[in-house]
Write a sequence for this structure.
């Protein structure tokens, strides 16, 4: 279990679930806790969430697969979400998206061979004033240019310990 | 009641009716997918568009989502609503594969029909098609997601209506997916309903796959014979075998859905060992020869020993007509020795219900509409599965459900469960009827007080009980309780689950007659020399199989009429084959006293799959269909009495003789049936019937219980149900297990008067102390443990202990 | 660039977040104190009603009116929900508030809860706004610590607990009934209305949902009065300031707090620094991705609810996305439609399958494979999606779509005739 959720967090969530009138409300919270720890939510994570909340894996999966920011497939250490909505699009996001694909050598939805980056599109990040923008993990990056992307990738790669 | 105008026609409808239903009332059928009478309107498919010209809402609206109101003027034929419907169909068909020729749904596909009706013909969409991977959903249901049109009916049926939790909706946008978390058999005992609910070929009956096109299957409205509820089913046959069963509609009983036992348990009539030819003393013979032999032997016996030497055993799974003719045959011979159920408590319970239920009988619809439910000594999922679903519908509306039962009564809904030992149930009934509540423990008394309070406060309460733990005495007390709780302004209805599809009818016919116990004694005493069994097998049906076997061995003549390869049929000196339910017409009277007509969907015959051994059958040319000898039991019984009777004649005779069956001869198939009139006087001198249990000794008291797929006689011969049968197990409370140092899952030795058997242990935390439970599982060592017999003293030992 | 009175942004300073100390110095929590000590719940509701505040989440429903439907006086379980699922493309005003001055939301919610007599509140924050969540966590903790939140607020009888819910994506969660489902832990499909959340919201209990910016305004209204608030507007009919989020082809795409009703042209020229690269203005989405385009002829239109509606569009979230003369409107609309198609919850057919159908049509046209009949087909698709879906998501998609065929039909025809995108370089 520890590779899905640290024991103390598991216990805290389990205790909260027991007290909770509607443990269902905690599905996203538990899934996000697993994802924070493990990087993504494997099948065992869905089952664990079910155990904690007294729900079947299917009941968890119905929610897990609804949200695009719950990863039900393995991802790299850093997930790059490139905004492809209108404000970023108007300021060249498409080209930057292609540039990222070229630089990383992967297509959208894929993970780099070294396991560092996964590339995914996302809808508007609320960074329209800094378009084009992207999010790596939970960190926002705006005013992207090719050069800035190179810098960001280098920093993130170093932080990820690749 | 609102009056509205649709396509220039006026209609008055009940308040709360939606416009789609109102239009249907005028014969205007507008295509729709997500709306379903039992599932309600959710406005997902957007297909039932109509143009609202006048009234409180205007413009194109989804008719299913709009309540019919006065002054509404609506058109369905205008350009805008027609265009909308055509576009919706076009969208739904964007990705649908053109695989109708190889799709099992082809020909009975609502999507095909609606596509034509909706006005979409040529696909204009030229983009990429969305595709999916399918899941293995087990032996009953095939999954073909590419055909899905996302109407959400399956999940609304499976989760909302049936309470399943292992199948649902995954993903979003145009990629929503209907399936399980992982491959695997759908766990709900009502899973097959998604086959009926799916408007196209996403979910199809795997047991029926690649076998028959819709236009080739022979179907007829029928009644499910697996339990006493009388659910409407539609069996379908081809190549001389029953190939599938689908749900029929009867709003008073099952509604629209059926359980998996009904759906996948229809194969008993296809059994490869089914006896299909008349037999005399072990040798196959012709019908005339067999009939002559039976008549002669009985006449001889009567001549030699008097009419009392011949006894008869009817059956809760035989039609009312056949049981009636058996009764009249016995009477014509002058024999009073006829019983209709070899299981003593079941027989007595049916008579109590038939005699005393009267207008208090609750239908499944009454239960769905009730506002408080108390279940006592009844285990719906195993004994009468659709009852569990009816109860769920009430609970979904917020109705409270209390369960008093020692068994771990599993239900597809929330319930307050008070696990009391069977011996405590009479006290509970007593207390409910106003007796001394203090005879129960303090905790129990408090809980019961609460239940009583809710019972009194409810406007439409229903009490539900079953015969296995309550017995006839308990059923009687339950009925008394209901009478006490009811007032002029407030009914208190009762549902008593009975043993078989025609138990109630048998109860009416049995009246003051003897029970099988008396017949057994007569056989053992040598007074009875012959027993004629109509579609019944006392060897497994009675509560004491060993004693019954001994008694049968003493007979000079055992005659059996049946369609199952039962022990009685096997040992009979004289055997006459009868038609199975899907091959027969007749009437069953369900547990609430509702007369339900079933028609014959197919003719009997050896299935080609049997005669061909899976291959093409041998090319022999015969004047008659192979294996077509079985005849309806009623026809044979008429013949034996030298009467040529039609079903109509028999029904009229029944009405004449038993006025409570008034209306029998005017019943129609596929309808809601008709409740029998409540004019039969209750048994004057009801025999003192003990409860089916007694205070136990120091050892464990073992009770047998029904199992969903493992206990029923018919289910036992339906091979498709095999995956649903558990391996033998015994249940024990946590404390008892701990005292014996036994743990959950462990292999243990169960010892009782019936011998020793190795089974797995299931520890049930709140099972009352001193109680053990086993499911009756046919074809296993647990077959001879009969529910409703009372307890067996038993010991449960670990395998090691057993060795020492 | 003319300076207007800053209300919501008065503590905004680049790269910094104002927390309790700063907030109080600038008059924070005075509204709450006034409400709790000097006003009855009913008076608070009345003041908000008089202020003319309209919902800032996109639909523009009068807040006072919405509150009047709420069974404030009925005791029992009730919920106050803040919709912080800001995901309308082009919109980032809530983020600006929460990055600059998060206590405004907390205080606004407490006052609103008092007005509606609600004991429990939840702030629903989208996944991408992690920093906003952290700011709110701190603000909530500070408010608790200071006795401004929790039991017996400011020693009054009123208690209010406030929770934060971090979501995991999906635009549909911003639809208020979908948001309630999301909070309950069921799939975030919108619910059928009626019943409205005010009657049956979370777990069937009365629930009031407002947007971040709407709540943030409440405490200023209470602190300074409804007359003051009404006066902030540029137009007679308007009320308050509005956070306009500028994006797209502008020199200075930033978020400005301006009197509501300022003209589109003024916003672009004075605040947005004009169309970038010296190019000419072609069109703008005046209120987010689900509002119909406005063109050069509409530059004089005041950015307030009513005037924009008269011009054929909507104020929506007040997110102005500007397109210059080089923009292919087919491609822009395709981008918008792809967004809506991807964010469809999958519940109803026209949205789930109709939007992908339009994607295919527009892709065909943009790629030079369009036929003249496609324009009719497109109109027919719009006609049968608009107003025919279960919720407003696809209707939002049809906003710009309808204006594409109405205002830029020539451009579509050009694509078809030239068998390529005439604006692609």
């Amino acid at each position: 279990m520890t590779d899905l959720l640290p024991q103390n967090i598991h216990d805290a969530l389990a205790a909260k679930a027991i007290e909770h009138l509607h443990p269902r409300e905690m599905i996203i919270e538990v899934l996000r806790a697993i994802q924070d720890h493990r990087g993504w939510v494997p099948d065992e994570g869905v089952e664990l969430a079910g155990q904690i909340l007294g729900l079947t894996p299917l009941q968890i999966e119905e929610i897990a697969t609804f949200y695009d920011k719950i990863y039900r497939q393995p991802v790299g250490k850093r997930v790059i979400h490139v905004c492809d909505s209108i404000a970023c699009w108007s300021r060249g996001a498409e080209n930057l998206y292609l540039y990222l694909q070229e630089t990383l050598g992967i297509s959208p939805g894929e993970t780099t061979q070294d396991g560092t980056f996964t590339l995914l599109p996302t809808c508007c990040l609320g960074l329209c004033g800094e378009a084009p923008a992207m999010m790596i993990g939970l960190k926002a990056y705006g005013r992207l240019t090719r050069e800035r992307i190179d810098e960001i990738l280098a920093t993130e790669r170093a932080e990820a310990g690749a | 009641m609102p009056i509205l105008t649709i396509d220039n026609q006026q209609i008055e409808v009940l308040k709360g009716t939606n416009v789609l239903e109102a239009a249907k009332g005028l014969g205007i059928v507008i295509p729709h997918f997500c709306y379903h009478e039992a599932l309600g309107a959710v406005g997902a498919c957007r297909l039932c568009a109509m143009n609202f010209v006048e009234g409180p809402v205007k413009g194109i609206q989804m008719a299913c989502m709009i309540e019919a109101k006065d002054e509404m003027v609506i058109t369905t034929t205008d350009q805008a609503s027609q265009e909308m419907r055509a576009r919706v169909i076009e969208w739904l068909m964007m990705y649908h594969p053109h695989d109708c020729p190889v799709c099992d749904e082809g020909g009975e596909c609502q999507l095909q029909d609606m596509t034509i009706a909706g006005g979409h013909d040529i696909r204009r969409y030229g983009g990429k098609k969305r595709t999916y991977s399918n899941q293995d959903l087990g032996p009953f249901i095939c999954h073909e997601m590419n055909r899905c049109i996302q109407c959400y009916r399956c999940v609304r049926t499976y989760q909302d209506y049936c309470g399943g939790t292992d199948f649902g909706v995954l993903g979003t946008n145009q990629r929503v997916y209907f399936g399980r978390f992982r491959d695997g058999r759908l766990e709900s005992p009502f899973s097959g309903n998604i086959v009926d609910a799916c408007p196209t070929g996403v979910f199809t009956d795997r047991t029926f796959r690649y076998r028959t096109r819709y236009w080739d299957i022979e179907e007829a409205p029928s009644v499910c014979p697996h339990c006493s509820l009388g659910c409407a089913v539609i069996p379908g046959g081809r190549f001389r075998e029953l190939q599938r069963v689908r749900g029929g509609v009867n709003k008073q009983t099952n509604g629209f859905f059926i359980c998996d036992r009904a759906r996948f348990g229809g194969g008993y009539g296809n059994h490869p060992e089914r006896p299909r030819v008349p037999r005399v003393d072990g040798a196959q013979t012709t019908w005339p020869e067999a009939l002559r032999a039976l008549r002669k032997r009985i006449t001889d016996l009567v001549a030699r020993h008097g009419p009392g030497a011949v006894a008869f055993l009817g059956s809760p799974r035989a039609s009312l007509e056949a049981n009636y003719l058996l009764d009249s045959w016995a009477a014509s011979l002058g024999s009073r020795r006829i019983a209709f159920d070899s299981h003593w408590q079941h027989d007595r319970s049916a008579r109590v219900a038939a005699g005393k239920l009267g207008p208090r009988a609750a239908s499944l619809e009454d239960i769905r509409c009730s506002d408080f439910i108390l279940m006592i000594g009844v285990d719906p999922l195993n004994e009468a599965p659709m009852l569990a679903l009816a109860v769920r519908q009430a609970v979904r509306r917020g109705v409270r459900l209390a369960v008093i039962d020692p068994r771990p009564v599993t239900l597809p809904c929330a319930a307050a469960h008070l696990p009391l030992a069977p011996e405590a149930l009479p006290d509970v009934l007593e207390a409910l009827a106003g007796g001394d509540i203090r005879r129960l423990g303090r905790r129990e008394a408090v809980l019961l007080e609460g239940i009583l309070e809710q019972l009194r406060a409810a406007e439409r309460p229903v009490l539900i009980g079953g015969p296995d733990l309550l017995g006839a005495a308990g059923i009687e007390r339950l009925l008394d309780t209901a009478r006490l709780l009811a007032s002029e302004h407030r009914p208190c209805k009762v549902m008593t689950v009975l043993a078989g599809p025609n138990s109630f009818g048998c109860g009416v016919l049995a009246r003051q007659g003897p029970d099988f116990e008396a017949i057994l004694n007569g056989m053992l005493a040598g007074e009875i020399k012959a027993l004629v069994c109509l579609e019944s097998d006392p060897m497994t049906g009675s509560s004491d199989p060993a004693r019954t076997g001994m008694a049968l061995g003493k007979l000079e003549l055992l005659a059996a009429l049946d369609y199952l390869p039962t022990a009685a049929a096997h040992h009979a000196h004289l055997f006459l084959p009868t038609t199975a339910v899907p091959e027969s017409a007749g009437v069953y009277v369900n547990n609430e006293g509702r007369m339900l007509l079933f028609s014959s969907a197919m003719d009997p015959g050896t299935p080609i799959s049997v005669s061909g051994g899976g291959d093409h059958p041998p090319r022999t040319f015969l004047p008659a269909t192979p294996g077509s000898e079985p005849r309806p039991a009623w026809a044979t019984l008429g013949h034996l009495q030298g009467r040529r009777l039609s079903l109509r004649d028999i029904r009229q005779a029944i009405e004449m003789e038993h006025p409570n069956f008034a209306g029998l001869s005017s019943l129609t198939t596929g309808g809601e049936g008709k409740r029998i009139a409540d004019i039969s006087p209750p048994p004057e001198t009801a025999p003192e019937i003990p409860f089916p249990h007694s205070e136990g000794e120091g050892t464990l008291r073992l009770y047998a219980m029904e199992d969903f797929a493992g206990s029923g006689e018919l289910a036992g011969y339906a091979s498709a149900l095999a995956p649903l049968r558990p391996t033998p197990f015994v249940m024990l409370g946590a404390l008892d297990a701990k005292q014996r140092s036994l743990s959950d899952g462990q292999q243990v030795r169960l010892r009782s008067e019936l011998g020793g058997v190795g089974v797995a242990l299931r520890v049930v935390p709140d099972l009352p102390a001193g109680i053990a439970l086993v499911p009756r599982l046919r074809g296993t060592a647990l077959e001879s443990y009969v529910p409703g017999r009372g307890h067996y003293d038993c010991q449960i030992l670990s395998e090691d202990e057993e060795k020492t | 660039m003319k300076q207007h009175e800053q209300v919501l942004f008065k503590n905004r300073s680049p790269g910094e977040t104002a927390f309790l100390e700063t907030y109080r110095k600038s008059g924070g929590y005075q509204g709450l104190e006034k409400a709790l000590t000097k006003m009855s719940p009913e008076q608070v509701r009345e003041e908000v009603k008089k202020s003319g505040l309209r919902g800032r989440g996109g639909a523009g429903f009068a807040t006072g009116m919405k509150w009047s439907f709420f069974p404030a006086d009925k005791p029992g379980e009730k919920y106050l929900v803040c919709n912080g699922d800001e995901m309308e493309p082009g919109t980032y005003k809530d983020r600006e508030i929460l990055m600059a001055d998060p206590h405004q939301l907390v205080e606004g919610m407490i006052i609103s809860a008092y007005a509606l007599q609600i004991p429990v509140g939840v702030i629903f924050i989208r996944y991408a706004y992690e920093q906003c969540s952290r700011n709110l966590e701190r603000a909530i903790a500070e408010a608790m610590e200071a006795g401004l939140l929790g039991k017996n607020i400011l020693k009054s009888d009123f208690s209010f607990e406030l929770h934060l819910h971090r979501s995991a994506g999906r635009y549909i969660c911003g639809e208020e009934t979908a948001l309630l489902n999301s909070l309950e832990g069921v799939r975030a499909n919108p619910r059928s209305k009626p019943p409205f959340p005010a009657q049956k919201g979370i777990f069937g209990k009365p629930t009031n949902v407002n947007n971040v910016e709407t709540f943030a305004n409440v405490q200023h209204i209470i602190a300074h009065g409804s007359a003051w608030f009404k006066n902030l507007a540029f137009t007679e009919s308007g009320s308050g300031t509005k956070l306009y989020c500028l994006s797209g082809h502008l020199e200075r795409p930033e978020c400005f707090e301006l009197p509501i009703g300022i003209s589109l042209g003024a916003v672009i020229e004075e605040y947005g620094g004009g169309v970038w690269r010296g190019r000419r203005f072609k069109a703008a989405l005046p209120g987010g991705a689900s509002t119909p385009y406005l063109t050069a002829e509409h530059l004089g239109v005041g950015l307030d609810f009513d005037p924009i509606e008269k011009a054929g569009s909507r104020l929506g979230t007040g997110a102005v996305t500007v397109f210059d003369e080089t923009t292919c409107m087919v491609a822009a609309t395709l981008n918008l439609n792809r967004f809506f198609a991807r964010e469809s919850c999958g519940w109803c057919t026209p949205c789930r399958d109709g939007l992908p159908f339009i994607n295919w049509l527009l892709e065909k046209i943009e790629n030079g494979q369009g036929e003249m009949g496609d324009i009719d087909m497109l109109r027919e698709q719009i006609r049968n999606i608009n107003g025919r879906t279960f919720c407003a998501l696809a209707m939002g998609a049809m906003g710009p779509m309808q204006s594409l065929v109405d205002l830029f039909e020539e451009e579509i025809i050009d694509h078809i005739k030239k068998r390529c995108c005439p604006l692609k370089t």
